[in-house]
Amino acid sequence: MTIIVTGGAGYIGAHVVDSLAAAGRDVLVVDDLSTSTADRVGDHPLHRLDLAAPGAADELAGVMRDAHATGVVHLAAKKQVGESVAKPEWYYRENVGGLGTVLEAARATGVDRLVFSSSAAVYGEPDGGVVDEGTTPRPINPYGQTKLAGEWMARAAARAWGLRQVSLRYFNVAGAGRPELGDVAVLNLMTLVLDRLERGERPVLFGDDYPTPDGTCVRDYIHVADLADAHVAALDYLDGDDRAHDTFDVGTGTGVSVAQMLAAIGAASGLDATPQVSPRRPGDPASLVATASRIREELGWAPSRGLEDIVSSAWTAWRVQRDAGVEPIRAAG
Ligand SMILES: NC(=O)c1ccc[n+]([C@@H]2O[C@H](COP(=O)([O-])OP(=O)(O)OC[C@H]3O[C@@H](n4cnc5c(N)ncnc54)[C@H](O)[C@@H]3O)[C@@H](O)[C@H]2O)c1
Predict the structure, then answer these.
(1) Is 143 annotated in the active site?
(2) Per the structure, how many domains does the chain have?
């Protein structure tokens, strides 16, 4: 009755492992540790495997059989948008190929439940900025494309051989459930700001002339521990429901602007987070917020942590990790 968590040593994956364990599920982590470290897995078994490597499906099938696996939460992927633009072939191999490995192994071993990590990046730059699962996905970079292709592949497997699967489209994930599990990848607003503040630099605000209430971009921030709990709800849904496949946005339904976020980080850290304003970056939609109503209705999941929790836990985790000598992961290239 084990759940395989691919990417379980990563930022979100380690929180998913915590949530599954708290819900009484046995967990086995499969991870190549390409962007993480084994100590994040704690006492849970870890099988080190590159899911995008030739022959990985056979090895994973063996792991699934030995563990008597019943389901997979597939988080393992590469997630840097800029890197995906520079190396699209590699992103497709890692993200789409890696999922192909998981599906082949699951089919060979009769593991018929999958929760797939998708992303709000599938929406691209939607008109109006508020989306739901009925909004047509139009990813604007290879990273988002690999996530949409992954959703399609998982759905095709559901149709072909009876896989039950849920794709979760994560919005802006931040915060930490425990300080030692904090995000050290300097790839999103929260960690970019914390990194600059730590170095005594001012945060950079890209564009203050958007058509939003305060002129800065608006996003939907979800606490990583709430997001992790959504995976438990998704697996329960797959256990209890006869629908073969479904897709859910995982957000809060509340938009927070960059300026509001900077103010919250300043308040939590006690540091001056007054930004220096730079021109807009291409590819940043003015607003991207989920209605997040379907997941509440269908899975009975709702976020329980607000912006203050997100920011204060992220700040504490950042300091704890840095004090422990954990080096930030910076954008490639
Ligand atoms: N962080 C976010 O804001 C966010 C938003 C939307 C979606 N996602 C998705 O959530 C998932 C987890 O993201 P994260 O933020 O925890 O990233 P992360 O880099 O911290 O975790 C990814 C994990 O997958 C492992 N991995 C990568 N490639 C692998 C491979 N070929 N074989 C085996 N293991 C491999 C890494 O070692 C790492 O432990 C990813 O699929 C990502 O695309 C993240």
Answers:
(1) yes
(2) 2
